[in-house]
Amino acid sequence: MERLTIFTPAYNRAHTLPRAFEALKKQSDKRFVWLIVDDGSTDNTREVVEDFQKEDCGFKIEYVHKENGGMHTAHNLAYKLIKTELNTCIDSDDTIGDEAVGKILDFWEKNGSDEFAGIVGFDTDFEGNVIGSRFPEDLKKTTLGAYYKNGGSGDKKLVYRTDVVKKYPPYPEYEGEKLVPLGSLYTLIDEDYELLVLDEALCRVEYQPDGSGASIFRQYRQSPRGFMYARIIRMKYAASFKGKASGAIHYISSCIFAREKHFLKKSPKKLLTVLMIPFGVLLNIYIRIKNR
Fold first, then answer.
1. Cβ-count burial 170-190 (b if 16+ within 10 Å, e if not)
2. pTM greater than 0.70
3. Inter-residue contact 189 to 160 (CB < 8 Å)
């Protein structure tokens, strides 16, 4: 019986999906579903996945195609479709770690409960180097925000309970925009739940030259309302004044790009927003220069 859904948003990644598939086939624990959400690919992603489905690989492969809308819209659709107790996202240019499925399910069966949103583990690169920092030896549970606030660094692999994720609103989808920062959902979950810490490598990552991280300044300009949404959440829930102020600065810059006239009314921290206006304007100018 499947306990875990591994979902993979894919946009023109037919050339990297076979590597992800090979890593999944090597898992000794097959109690998972692989869900590929094709975000409007124009390459041969569908044909590649159909070839995967013809193999006797020991696990179920589900495929769904949608119009291109960006990573967050693929996550929205995945969360609607997932039926297993747990879920995790493995990006189309990454691979699952060695025996990661067994590590996740065994750990959850021993330690999981309704008290926790799920599990957090760490990522490595393809040479086995940990991305960012390891977890402190005595850290057994944490929120994602608290981990970073206390000096943690680097992308971490999140395994969430599906019923928890479904409690929260989906990422907003704005016409003409392709990005809402995924961390906005994780921040909301942090307000209500902690994560169990599994100090194991769950994913091997590779950052593509055309990935979202490589084009972040362009995304700031092209998806201002998505970033406005994320910055509102940051202003509301950041644990430190510095975090709230940073959220306000980025919020102002995004509002300028979006030509949002009612930015002060929509801000959850109005006085802070007023104080940060000069810095938000300067950030907006800096982003424009970087996008030349």
1. bbbebeebbbbbeebbbbbbb
2. yes
3. yes
